[in-house]
Amino acid sequence: MKKHLFLIVALALFACSCCDKTNETQNETVMNTTMDDLLTHRSVRSYTDEVPPMEVIEEICKAGTYAPTGMNRQAPIILAVTNREVRDRLSKLNASVFGRDDMDPFYGAPVVLVVLADTTAAMTWKVDGSLVMGNLLNACHAKGLGSCWIHRAKEVFEMEEGKAILRDLGIDDTKYVGIGNCILGYTAGDYPEASPRKDNYVYWIK
């Protein structure tokens, strides 16, 4: 009886040890994948016309909503634009900001995730919106998609046509300011190479 009990205990301990090692391996794999995504993400400026599956876009948006925000006030919002007509209207408005009506500042990307933030929700609204943008960009890369931060969301949603888009969605256009446009889609051509990191990027205080 004692031998049987000893055997059972030994097997249980062995099983626990195997589980711990498995969990350690899984955690290490997740960490390595996360670091790889952060280090290999690049800004993409050439896209195919193919729209990624809606469930992938939804997952990317979800990642954006989990960005840290000041006092957890969650000041930012995301306009997930998959409608081609609206996407093209935003592109023209964006181009008009710098007087280039002859180009597409979204580089042909079929989807645009516009981040805005409520200026009355928290003092950190601008930083909070930037963190959401970062999450969106990295989530795109993790899902195998190209992405790029395109500026001038602020100017576009200060225009009457931009404000009208917000009002149509029931969003208070007097509170929200544009932070950035995360364009996304499938990369056309070669994936960009990383530029060398500048000297003295990190200063150590030990």
Which short descriptors sum up this protein?
4 strands; 4-stranded antiparallel β-sheet; 6 helices; 206 residues
Number of helices: 6
Q: Which stretches of 5+ consecutive residues score pLDDT under 50?
A: 6-14
State the total count of DSSP E strands. 4
Q: Largest sheet, described in full?
A: 4 strands, antiparallel
Structural class: alpha+beta
The average pLDDT is 91
Ends: how far apart? 59 Å
What is the radius of gyration computed over CA atoms, rounded to a whole number of angstroms?
Answer: 23 Å
What is shown here, in short?
The chain is α+β, with helices and mostly antiparallel strands and 206 residues long.
Q: In words, what does this structure look like?
A:
It is a single chain. The chain is of the alpha+beta class and 206 residues long. The chain has helices at residues 2-40, 54-65, 84-97, 125-142, 153-156, 160-168, and strands spanning 76-81, 111-118, 146-150, 176-185. The chain has a four-stranded antiparallel beta sheet with strand order 1-2-4-3.
Blueprint of the fold:
Layout: H1 2-40, H2 54-65, E1 76-81, H3 84-97, E2 111-118, H4 125-142, E3 146-150, H5 153-156, H6 160-168, E4 176-185
Antiparallel strand pairs: 1-2, 2-4, 3-4
Helix pairs in contact: 2-4
